Amino acid sequence: MNKLHKLASLALISTVIVGCSSSPSEPEKTPTPTEPTTPPISESDRYQAERYDIKEDLAPKEPMSVEHIDEIVPQYEPYSLGGTKNYTVRGQRYQIIKDPKGFKEKGQASWYGKKFHGHLTSIGEVYDMYSMSAAHKELPLPSYVKVTNTDNGKSTIVRVNDRGPFHPGRIIDLSYAAATKLDVIHTGTANVEIEVITPEKPQSEHQQKTLPKYQIQVASSPHKDRVETLAQDLSQKLSVPSFVGSDQEIHRVLLGPFDDYNLTQNALEQVKLLGYSSAFIRKN
């Protein structure tokens, strides 16, 4: 491979969109008669192989208890710019659903965990396997979805902020926490039905003030000392109250509470500017 070809390959790798199961990318280049007849490893596969420290996905060493997993309360969020763009994976074009209100779908759910923990999702947020999140191929990001495991009747709500799963028959990839909540961890996959929840945008100051108080969850970790340090640091930098919410082995950095939704949104934007792109708003 000559120098020009190497530079072109590196440029292509840098444009790959990040995803949970397979990164959205442009179709592979068709070999010309002067190139080797043996199909090369795709740039997408090479990128994935180099990007993750763990080759095969797995759960944390210690099982997670479902009792302390918080339910997400859907909040109005504008869609991200990248979360509304059509894209291509493995030669297949995916069209984003423009109006997902009332959208329902049945199929199989899978889950993803430690291999992807701490890496970026498709819209640039940090994947946290202990958060109630998920990946979907065609919903605008972020979206809120009610997921029901039709094998056992259990249901929960997740925030969709990633792309995938790119496997036949699978319609949603659950975070480790969400999969634990629905008892999908041991089975690996489960039959599910999903339904999009579309929160209404607050229209007036009066409506915003009548809503419950809000908190911002910044991060979660099993290391309490690190979480406490981060909570103090953010409180000083942003001049907002902070505290640590602990449930068994998991500790969360929480900011607030806030009475006004707009103020909460402003604080969330500041938090994300500091690098905590997976932070989200939740009700008290």
From TrEMBL:
Membrane topology: Lipid-anchor
Domain of life: Bacteria
Main location: membrane
Any Gene Ontology CC annotation: cell outer membrane
NCBIfam families attached to this UniProt entry: rlpA
Described purpose of this protein according to its UniProt entry: Lytic transglycosylase with a strong preference for naked glycan strands that lack stem peptides.
Protein name: Endolytic peptidoglycan transglycosylase RlpA
